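In the previous chapter we treated chains in isolation. Here, by contrast, the input contains four separate entities that must be folded as one system, with a combined length of 1634 residues.
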Amino acid sequence: MDRRQFVKATAISGASASLAACGNPEEQLVRFISDEPLPPGLAVTRRSVCPLCPAGCGVEVRVMEGDVEVVRDGVRGIVKKGLAKKLEGLPGHPVNRGRLCARGQAAIQVTYHPDRVRQPLRRTGDRGSGAFAPVSWDEALAELAARLEALLQDGDPRGLRFLTRPLRSRRGVVISEFLERFGAPAPVVVDLFGDAVLRQANLESFGFHQLPTLDIAQSRYVVSFGADILGTWNSPVAQSVGYGELRQGRPGIRGKFVQVEFRMSQTGANSDQWVAARPGTEGFLALGMARAILASGRRSPSDGGRAGELIEGWSDGLQAYAAEAVEQVTGVPAATVEQLGREFADNGPAIAVIAGVPLAQTNGLFNALAVNALNALAGSVGVPGGVRFTPVLEGLRGLDAAGETIETLARSILETPAGGAPPVDVLLVHDANPVFGAPPAWGVGEALARVGFIASFGSFQDETSAMADLILPDHSFLEALVDHVPEAGTARAAASAARPAMRPLHDTRDMADVMLDVGRRLALDLPTEWETYEDVARERFEALPPPEGFDSAWIAAQANGVWIGPEAPVPEPASFPDVRPRAYAAPEFDGGADAYPFHFLPYVSQAFLDGSLAHLPWLQELPDVVTTAMWSSWVELNPRTAAELGVEAGDLVEVRSAHGALQAPALIFPGIAPDAVAMPMGQGHENFTRYATGRGANPVRVLAPTVEPETGGWAWAATRVTIARLEGAGDLVRFGGALREHPDLER
Amino acid sequence: MGGLAASVVLIGVLAGVRLISAQDRLVEPQSGSVFSPAHATFRDALAHFLGWRREPVQPIPFPHRTHFEEAFLECTYCHDGAARGPVARIPSVVVCMDCHFDVATDREPIQLLTSFYESGQEPPWERVYGWLPEAHVRFNHAPHVRREIECTVCHGDVTQMIVAEPAVDHTMSFCVGCHEQSQASIDCVTCHY
Amino acid sequence: MPRWGMAVDLDRCTGCEACVTACHAENNIPTVGPEEAARGRAMHWIRVERYWEGEFPDVRLTFRPVFCQQCDNAPCEPVCPTYASYHTDEGLNAQVYNRCIGTRYCANACSYNVRFFNFHNPEWDRPLDLQLNPDVSVREVGVMEKCTFCIQRINAARIDARAETEEGRIEDGTLQPACAQSCTANALVFGDLDDADSRVSRLSRSPRGSKLLEELGAEPSVTYLQKGDWDESGGG
Amino acid sequence: MNLAADKRITDELLKPLQGSSRRYRLTVAALMLVVSAGVAAWAVQMYSGIGLTGLNSPVFWGFYLVNFVFWIGISHAGTLISAILRIVDAGWRRPVTRCAEAITAFALLIGGVLPLIHLGRPWLFYHLIPFPDGRGLWPNFRSPLMWDFFAINTYLLASTLFLFLPMIPDFALVRDRASGIRRTIYGWLAMGWQGTPRQWNRLESAMHIMAIAIIPIAVSVHTIVSFDFAMAVVPMWHSTIFGPYFVVGAIFSGIAALIIAMALLRRLLRLEAYLQPLHFDKLGKLLLTMSLLWAYFVFAERLTVWYGNEITEMPVFWATFTGEYAPAFWIMVAGNFVLPAVLLSTKRTRTVAGCVVASVGVVVGMWLERFLIVIPSLSYRQLPYTWGSYAPGWTEIVVMVASFAAMALLYCVFVKFVPIISIWELKSGNDMDDAPHIVEAEARDAAAGPVPARGEAS
């Protein structure tokens, strides 16, 4: 080939490499004038907040000019647009300190997802069929306003409900205010795998209805009871940053990390000591440790303060929790209990934390109170290196689960006699997918089918928005103004705010702006200064003290990506609820041990969380770090159990509980107890974009609807199942080969 | 001082995105439409392999010489990216209209230019230089400009051209020859990555 | 002239795989889809290896991020018949996509198995392609690719440094590949091994340090710091 | 030998060149169809990407390279039989040499194409060719693949010459009997051969030089092919024994291929008179020798690996010994060692049929040996996390079948244009007494008429 001619060939260079039209005039498109002047070939940094979990990590967005193929006024052409290219952790953000987890990195694919809803859609087929046709925003909003107007006319404003995931931005305020002015009940916050139990326990023990901030970096000893602190729970990036410091951040000091769980998680793999305790007995173990501390005289019961008093038998030195009893109940050797207790007391500041499986039990609240008491006993609460609580910013507080839950809502709809008007006529859904995530026994899908009119703000069709009559697609977080107040992860108060990092790619609108618009159409008595969501967000920021060099906190927050509050004294608890001391009750499981010999331990997936991220191809192809599985779902079996059942890796097995059955390939997993099986959540979507639909199985399908009786939190880890081998192999795709580094050399 | 810095940052933030958006709709992907770095058709592949190419045809015979000699415009006035970063960029018609709202509005080419502007379109300028994606070449103008390498070295004396022509063959030997002479790196990954 | 290297603190690494996604985003690494992944063609320039030890309940699981070790004495380089795989002046094992004819010999020679081959043309469902990083080539079918230590960032940093100072020195800590930048527990540290004061060279001299498959003599530029042991005296 | 006998030999051996049967044409058509299927498979693979194969990470090399090594091995048939036997002037070689040399040339052609098919971007194969230009780019002479490139090309050139030189007098013979276009073509191929003493002299010395020169070339070629593996730090590849091991294996498989080819020719071209049980007996002994040598190398290789007990090598060792690749291993041992040892050790079973059965066993066994060298080592590399496995894709199977068809096709075409037994060499042989058939004919001719002095043909 002639090199000279080769190089002479005209081309479209780097930034526009995506266009295959080069050199073919018949394929060359019109080039529209861009109204976003950006330096060519150079990156501009903008800020945002990661929306994928409630942690609220600050994000730096790398924006570059790129060619986008668009239709403008019916003409197809190319225009230069500022495009987000990469997300990075925002340096200086008190939660994530410049770091960002795998999910956060993948969040950019939400914006560019090929299956995003590109314009408002109206349902044309049956509910759940997924058949929709485009409508204009005007039409769509008029229809929604008319439905709501009709409710007002009928004098039935309580026929409106709003479903949302927990919100830590002022969008929650817009929703709440709208509903209040409308006369509708407060929003139903869907947080199925959330921490309602732990918040309640923290309120009872310490007076804070919020998740703890773990100051792991300054700690010397961390015991985690089932909490996936390095993977998915609470503020995993903040906790991982702290974990790195715990291990190797301080010359001469290396903290110890102990994990208590029945199935080794990614977090458990990082522990210095891994302790297998039976599900639901973790609180008993924590009190065993406390007893060991008390018995050794290292601490006295009074050190436990209020948190200790909530435990029956505390002042008597927890006689019922002798190491031998603990061994009996939990399966943890008595010597280990004594050792853990001694080390916990001697290596302060020490942290005990509980979340996940131990709380998703019928005795979840007790388990949490027990761990709180252990923390209090060791003097770890509210001190550097211990368990702390982020100061709450009034007015910027988020929207958390309280009052009506999706379970009670569904029940109230389903209990309406046939033919009677259901209690909900209009349902608005924002970023929640209970049809996928709630146990089948709650009948959420059936309940939604009976609602008169559903409008979803979803960016994607999923199992819930497929039930909607109207889809009003929201901006992606990169296209919207974002604000966020972290609940935990920082010892100082913080609040993020950022303008859109890029123009909307599609014909979408901000959910909050839509609500304000509808509010105006209905002439609701919303604050007049709330013209757009930006006004709502700015309002409360303006009330915060501006940091040095800035005139307002709002400007500071945007300039730095985050506003950080002044060094505040330890927040004082507001008030304590009036509760009685409690005693340990053994966890109750759904399904008898004879008929259903295995504990079923679903877990929040490292890649997909509860399943809301299963649509992102990067996360689908991310090898699960513990199992190396990609694009799959699987059932984890202890090698011994597998051998007894005659199951080999990849074989299809059936998991059956009293509430349903599912099929998935088996995966041999040395880190799980022989009488338990585990399964990640997130797969098994029936309708959730091309990447997730029809892929794998959803463990929720077999879960019992059991709840923690005191808080109403769903006890999703309290189901027992049977396992049976089926014919054939399942779709198990793995990245990694051998399980062990030194496979046996002898055969 | 801090306030100044803050307002500078803020201007940057606020100027970043104006919320008024043109009514652009992203093109719906055709069924299975994918981006691929390889050639769209076999014909493209063959043309690429054999080095067949079409001479660039410009919509308007842009007289570089006139702009240099009579309007006294430096190269970087329009190709403003050259000194700052990798891409020199073909200027937008908006830049043209800065002057041509008033200048030479009676001439036919300028009327054509104005009509492009008014219809919201860029004139379909064709690139004179450039590489195919398969060449995996990354070129950054800025360090070359900082080294005070004249534009003419690589682009010929465009100031004396009417329509820009590919006066210099951007072959690898051309790049390597110059890099060797000026003792710049000839490591492959200086340009290929 | 700097000599780039990395230190991986296994005592910090949590196996969160932020590095894996960060690398995909930065380097235009394609997702191959479930069918191709099942055929063993998934591409991850950096991966976190996991190894089990022991039996329940005395079971351990260890993580080890593995990516191109940028060996000084790299087995992948001499075997390439076209010099597509070669050693740069700054100690990197570079891969020149233009020269690669796809013999895949380098991938066989590499004991770390960190080279990845484009068995098909990579595809991005539109508009996912709008995310592609314009500073990095999109590799086509038949081409071998691998971790570059984010060469585009190194080159950009060098250009910036030369614009700012006479000698054009890249200050320690100003330059990070995408993996190290995202690393939540700060386990990955990148820098100049020839700068005795850089964080990476100090860590590389740590008594906890060792090289992966050191016995093969490839002289990797990546040092792994082994997991520490906890003892009650508080040391570690 | 008398003129009549000469004429008889000439007539018999030129017979295949004069027209072809319907069965022959059908066979050629079928083979061409299979070869075209192989070419089509390659074209589709180029268009779609090498992903159509079963290759993956970590098994980056598969069937293509297995077949490459296999065919290069087969190509060693010509060298040994022809060159060595020529040098030692073993008389019984005469009917066998061309048959063997043809295998060499064709197997090399086929073997040489396979690495190109295996390339990810075969259209850029010219990057392997050194040529100066302003970019300052050269191929990497440190790479064993470059050595391969040169070694195989050299060997192809040398073996083609080696095949061609002794064909010249036979071309002249055909030329003299042909007319029209055939006469022109054969005239061109005969390069003005007139059979003058001077020309004979030159031919003889050229043959001698080539025979001596080609032996080191052949040895080096398969040594270099072995270096493709031995130079990489891959478990059970990185071995000093690979050079001689490969050369022995190559000669081994080459002889087996030759025996099969001879048996087929003998049957199909009715050459029983020329390719006699005697030749099979001698080649059978040689095959047995090579089988024992091969077994020795395998034993030496595996014993040292097993005894050394290196952590990275043992997974490969066990995978081939008792694990997933064990069936292939034990079939290989049976075909390469047990079968030849049993069949070829006694005169009673060292018949034509016995030799052919043993040779088929060896060809299958040697193919499996190549497979067992390439695949298991790549499946079980140093880091257990990267372990994987391999199954061929459809293009690999089609191309492999096509490569065998190509061999058959080239041979079919060859025997139609060139006398497959070197006529002049056979005539010049002084050992024809060994051939009872010829002796009988001579006796018959002697009875019929006057006989010129023997040995005057040259």
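The radius of gyration of chain C is 18 Å. Chain C touches chain B at residues 86, 88-89, 92, 94, 96-99, 121-127, 129, 132, 135-141, 148, 151-152, 155, 159, 162-163 (CB under 8 Å). Compare these points with the single-chain example from earlier in the chapter.
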